[in-house]
Write a structure and sequence with these properties.
The complex is a heterodimer of chains A (319) and B (578).
Chain A (H helix, E strand, L loop, with lengths): L1 H28 L4 H6 L5 H11 L5 H13 L5 E2 L4 E2 H36 L4 H15 L2 H15 L13 H5 L2 H31 L2 H8 L4 H13 L1 H16 L2 H6 L5 H10 L3 H29 L1 H9 L1
Antiparallel strand pairs in A: 1-2
Helix pairs in contact in A: 1-15, 5-6, 5-9, 5-12, 5-15, 6-9, 7-9, 9-11, 9-12, 10-11, 12-15, 14-15, 15-16
Chain B lengths: L1 H24 L21 E5 L17 H10 L27 E3 L4 E5 L13 H13 L16 E6 L4 E6 L5 H7 L9 H4 L5 H12 L18 E6 L5 E5 L13 E5 L4 H9 L5 E3 L8 H6 L2 E6 L3 E2 L1 E4 L7 H4 L2 H8 L4 H8 L4 E2 L17 H10 L2 E2 L7 E2 L2 H4 L10 E7 L3 H15 L4 E7 L2 H4 L14 E3 L6 E2 L24 H12 L4 H13 L3 E2 L2 E2 L2 E6 L2 E2 L16 E2 L2
Parallel strand pairs in B: 1-8, 16-17, 16-18
Antiparallel strand pairs in B: 2-3, 3-5, 4-5, 6-7, 7-8, 9-22, 10-22, 11-19, 12-18, 12-20, 13-21, 14-15, 23-24
Classes of the chains: A mainly alpha (319), B alpha+beta (578).
Chain lengths: 319, 578
Amino acid sequence: MLRYLLTRLGQALVIVLLVTMITFVILHLLPGGAARATLGKEATLAQLAAFDHEMGYDKPWAQQYAMYLWRLVQGDLGYSFQLNQSVTEAIGQRLPKTMVLSLLSTVLAVVVAVPLGVIQAVRRNRWPDYAITGLSLLAYATPIFFMGLMMIILFAQVWPVLPPEAPQGFTLAEVLADPAGLVLPTVTLAIVTIAVYSRYVRSSMVDNLNENYVRTARGKGLREGRVVILHTLRNGLFPVITLLGMYLPALFSGALVVESLFNYPGMGQLFWQAALKRDFPILFGVTLIVSMATVLGALVADLLYATVDPRVRLRAARS
Amino acid sequence: MGTRFHRRGSYVLAGAAALVLGLSACSGGGSGGPTAGAGAGQKAKDSVTVAFRTPNWILPISAPGFTQGENAIFGAAQYRHLYEYKLDGTAKDNIDPGRSMAEPPQVSDGGKTLTITLKDNAWSDGKPVTTKDVKFWWDLVTANKDKWASYREGGFPDNIDAFTVKDDKTFSLTTKKVYNAAWFVGNQLNRIVPLPQHVWDSGDGPVKVFDKLTAAAKDPKTYATNPLWQVNSGPWKLESYVPNGEVVLSARENYSGTDQPKLKKVVLRPFTGDDAEFNVLRAGQIDYGYLPPANLSQQKYLESKDYTISPWYGWSITYLQLNYNSPKSGPLFKQPYLRQALQMLIDQPTISKVIWSGMAAPTCGPVPSTKTCAYSFDPARAKELLETHGWKIAPDGQTTCENPAQCGEGIAAGTPLAFTVTSQTGFSATTKMFAEIKSQMAKLGIDLTIKEVPDSVAVTPMCKTSEAKCAWDMSFFGSQGSWYYSAFASGERLFATGAPVNLGSYSSPEADKLIEATQFADDAATLNAYNDFLAKDLPVLWMPNPVFQISAYKSGLQGVDPQDPMNGMFFQDWSWKS
């Protein structure tokens, strides 16, 4: 297992390195310079040149990339001129906000979607199944922007029981101190996820409920609830594990639309604004973190598979 | 069996619902609840919550990259400029006597010496504001002019021969040439900000001191705690500051100016975008915000929610930049008849009224107050101009040059009239405006391709014909106005040959002469002559000039209007109706 882990971590490192390299090239191929985007139309040529020199943009690409990697090794992600902040600080400020929102919405989505999927499977082709399927498809088809807007209009304006914006603090404590502010963005983000997860759980449960081991369990006289929850659900959760693994990067990358709607400056907003203003240090920093989260997510999903399914462990041991 | 399972599922669902409801029930003490926030609604009559981008520069010497409007307002709230201006025509050289820290300058020595006397003002620590504080500013910018965003070669401080301190209250500036006093007062003296010399001057010399101050300004998280920023001259002091977050200003009790703050606190709240701001505005949770142009149809709704909607007109112009150095389009743009024809295809009054819903007005020349346009919308005259200059018009097709001798120098036979406009994304009115212009041009066979990018300035740089980056034809960056002037609307930075913001490299000896006259001839007629010439010569295509912002503020808030055309915000004038 340790060897497997080390191999996967080595692969992850290579992938992250490749991602930074590709990002670096793409960003430098963008038309227009970072200096003009940062300093504005009033900047003189001398000021533009001074900016490029200070940021190292006047050096050849290869040298810039090597310098970036060297600083990275030293834990220095660089300085954002646009924000007047170090990249580490900027990311450190937004990451907790993004993680709180993503985690809450994921937990809510799983807590709601799994029972919904199970109910649909158990009651398949009957009215609960049709009703939930209809609602899921509606939720999935509704643009998240529209969904959020409806939430705000309904619960902050027509029936003003919740605030229209998310918590405005930046520390974890400040964010959690305003739980009411988290409700609308969390629910908005969770609704689409619920629709997706419940469909996967339903499909997987329907397959598993027809398996021989389920028939055997029923034949042994086990109660239906026990058969469904203890025997079938464990196997039925495989797709959710895959989805959760794929979802891990979202914990770090943020949800741009929800952040924009609910005035919640998280990682999505940070990346978007940086892209608009050619804030290269921020773009590199966020890309690095998200790519690391992506490979880590895939790794975690594999490890979870092994935990849930003994056959995976067996295959790994044999190989 | 099924019922048991159904119940269990219901329990889980109920649990999830409880999680959500539990979160919502715990709202007490939160900062963002409907009834929370220091300035929410009119409940707190001594504070105001303002939609405002988080400023990120505190040092009142602007650095390149930190010249955004929010930084200027944030700075001026804490550190007063030597002179403030108002453009209502009531004061000489537009100096606002109430807000300025000095008496208007006395000009002598044939116009070369300006003697300035400070009024009685004090720093927040009680020390008087003296000429040492002005000299300290002078020394810092003189020794570090390349790091000062407002520095232009040949301008302040290069154009000063001597800075002489006469006593604690009086100093004089002797210029190298005789300048137009209105220009010098409006566009040079506006930069002076007395700085607390007794606190900031560590005696290490202006270069080291400047570096120390810059380093401190590059650490925004310490803005509210660093002792350097605690001594100020403005009506407001910084109470709390969160980088990229909320900023709170509180009224200074011992402020020495005549414009005393009437509120105790101003909360500056940033928003992630127009939608977030508008949602909060609709919910009535900010006292002063803005109505995004895309949501203008909601004006009545906001008014019904006790908001006043007030367009904020800027001292600005809007234009479509032409690239005279473009290898393809440059020779075309150099033909005055062609510029005139293109201008005649832009229906500014209709675009302003219909597309901008009345929140824009035609630009007719380089000086914002110009009311009559030299070239009104006239497609028939535009067609005639092109035909008489050798162009074969192909309506809804491709117009080409038929007679190169008439078309003009550098234009070959068969050259099409086809241009690409690099415009801005994110502004629906801008998109519609160019769709209308494209349609008008197509009627004369002029092919206009519209390319929208997030930052049009960044991809349409000033360039030489030989450079690859010079391929752009037209650039638009005026969705919120292309250019905002200082008090004196001269064009040395925009339309003079080689000027820093002359992105299209327009060059005209006559224009240069007239621009120079506005700087050096002490005659009000020079500005008119300059304006008249450029209004007709069309260095750029004049475009509808949108308002700076459509402000929306609680009707109980007074003192907001009139809004400063030079984009200042004077929170000290604001108060709640009792």
